[in-house]
Structures are given as structure tokens and as C-alpha cells.
Write a structure and sequence with these properties.
Length: about 325
């Protein structure tokens, strides 16, 4: 079981992971989510707006938070090379444009991304390599296969692993099984001298209730996940403001309880600058400004970056660029 530090705080979460019954009691003892209230608050936060200099700063921050993603069966080495190049230099005409946080690919294409991000044997970029693993997107595989999938990706050069939980086990109430699997995958993220951060994907569109989103958030954090992530992008609804708000409340409360910070990554369906800024406002209002950093908040996206770049050019030049200004992903 993971060790959960509680120095200086009043909660001892280690007892909750001692048995399936104890874990169930803890998770079902969390405060219930008022669906109407949660959706109303998320909608209200979504009406906030920022202008001029603050908006320009928000756009650059959002770019720095993007995990530029391609997760299609038709992905090719050429597509991944182009994506990694774009992640490093989103706007080749403007050297002040920041790089994205990461490029996210399937494990068998990690080596291609690493090669593109490497110059002369050294990583020539701060862009991280994220790899989906554990039988993404379904999570339907034996544990040894999931662990091998994870280990292969880390050995190939992945800095971050995006795993999917077993939603069937979670919905059946086998919480300890899910927790132990996350713990095992986190251990597999360390291969020799290499160690990758772990993002835990819930597939919130399949969890059915906000209460389940809150329970899954705490379960993943108690298991040692570095990030909690909404979705694979393959199931609708994917990321939504209410779901992300509940996850932000969870990481805020978890830090208060344990002193440990955990990141949040909404993924799937976030396509516009306007939407990205709504999420940033929510991060600041719900979790706090400490999470306004790529180390603690990410967007899982492919087309979002294009709109961010066009809006950035509009603010810089006073006019919108043509439709062929940015590459289409």
C-alpha cells in the first residue's frame, strides 16, 4: 500500500486502505455532491471573463498546459514527428510563443517522439513525452499485460504515463482492487534510473454520478497518482466543467488533509480558447493559484492549440490569421 504522509494534519488515511470494507466505508463516507448546486456553480464560474493583458497571459499559460495528443489507430511515425515538432515550436514565426507541456502518444510511438525531441543524444526540449498505457482506452486486460505496457513505455522514454482505471471493477464496488492496480502501475513507472509521473484516467462519462467522480478522485490520490484525469477522449461526455470542478475540490481537500498536491487534467472536448479560460478561472477559484502551473494542471487536447494560437496572433497583431496559418491536427 502507498504511504500517505499526514504530518501536521488531522487525517490518517492509511487505515482506509487496510481492507476493502474499510476503503468502501471511507469512500462512501465522503460528502455527497449536490448535482444541482455543482452544475449551477460551474455555470456561474464559466461566465467570468478576463480581458487584455490578463487574457494574453492566460492564453500563454493555456498553451504551456497543453498535452498535445494523437491517439488514433491510424497514427504514423510521420504524424508523431510533426506533432512533437509543433509541441516544441507551436508558432514557428514567433519565438516568444511557449512550448506545450507534453506530447501524448501510444506507447509504441514513444521512441519516435523522443527522437524528434532529442538533438545529438540530448533532450533539446522541455516538452515531456506522455504515453497512454494499461490497455487504453478500455482498460480491459490482465494486470501483467498492463504492467508490461507501462514498463515498455517508460523504458522507451516516456516521462508520464496516462493509465485508465478498471471502470467495471470500480462500478462493482471492488475499490481495493482498483487501488492496488494503481499502486502496481505506479511502481511499474520506475524502471531502473527512469521514473515517470502517473496520471490516472477515470473515464467520467462512464462513472454515471458526481459522487462516483469524487470517490474515484480520492481513490486515485490515495493510491499515489500524481494527476487525476477526466477522460480518454473516446467516450462522451468527456471533460465538463462540473466534473472538473469536483476533481479540483478533491485535490484541494486532499492537500488540506495530507499536505500533498495532486494535479488535474481535463481531456476531451476542450477546443476553444474561451473554454480553456473558463477552466483556468475555475482552477483559480476552486483549487487556488498554486494549481495554475503546468506541473499541476493540464489540458488533454489536439485541436485546442490551434485556436489558442489564432487568438494569440489576434491579440498580438490586431487581426485574425488566415485559416491556413496553423496546422490542422
Amino acid at each position: 500500500m502507498p504511504t500517505i504522509s499526514t504530518q501536521g494534519v488531522g487525517w490518517d488515511l492509511s487505515d482506509a486502505t487496510r481492507s476493502d470494507a474499510a476503503l468502501r466505508r471511507f469512500l462512501h463516507g465522503l460528502p455527497g455532491v449536490d448535482q444541482v448546486g455543482a452544475e449551477a456553480r460551474a455555470a456561474a464560474l464559466g461566465t467570468r471573463s478576463i480581458k487584455t493583458t490578463a487574457k494574453a497571459q492566460a492564453i500563454d499559460l493555456a498553451i504551456r498546459m497543453v498535452d498535445l495528443t494523437t491517439l488514433e489507430g491510424q497514427d504514423t511515425p510521420g504524424k508523431v514527428r510533426a506533432l512533437a515538432s509543433k509541441a516544441m515550436r507551436p508558432d514557428p514565426t514567433d519565438p516568444t510563443c511557449p512550448a506545450t507541456a507534453a506530447v501524448c502518444v501510444y506507447p509504441d510511438l514513444v521512441g519516435v517522439a523522443k527522437e524528434t525531441l532529442t538533438d545529438g543524444g540530448r533532450r533539446d526540449s522541455d516538452v515531456h513525452i506522455a504515453a497512454v498505457a494499461t490497455a487504453f482506452p478500455s482498460g480491459r486486460a490482465a494486470l501483467d499485460i498492463k504492467l508490461a505496457d507501462t514498463a515498455d513505455a517508460v523504458e522507451a522514454g516516456a516521462d508520464e504515463i496516462d493509465m485508465v482505471i478498471d471502470r467495471g471493477a470500480f462500478l462493482a464496488g471492488r475499490y481495493l482492487q482498483v487501488l492496488e492496480e494503481i499502486v502496481a502501475v505506479r511502481e511499474a513507472c520506475t524502471q531502473g534510473e527512469r521514473s515517470a509521473h502517473l496520471k490516472v484516467i477515470f473515464e467520467t462519462g462512464e462513472l454515471r454520478t458526481y459522487d462516483n467522480v469524487r470517490r474515484a478522485s480520492w481513490l486515485a490520490m490515495m493510491a499515489g497518482g500524481h494527476f487525476i484525469k477526466t477522460s480518454t477522449g473516446k467516450v462522451q461526455p468527456a471533460a465538463t466543467l462540473p466534473v472538473t470542478m469536483i476533481m479540483l475540490e478533491a485535490v484541494r481537500d486532499f492537500r488540506e488533509a495530507t499536505g500533498q498536491m495532486v494535479g488535474v487534467k481535463p481531456a476531451g472536448g476542450i477546443r476553444s480558447t474561451k473554454d480553456a479560460i473558463k477552466y483556468l478561472v475555475m482552477v483559480n477559484e476552486v483549487a487556488g493559484p498554486d494549481w495554475l502551473d503546468p506541473d499541476w494542471f493540464r489540458f488533454g487536447a489536439s485541436t485546442l492549440l490551434n485556436d489558442l494560437l489564432m487568438q494569440r496572433t489576434k491579440m498580438r497583431t490586431g487581426r485574425y490569421s488566415g485559416p491556413d496559418y496553423v496546422t490542422l491536427d
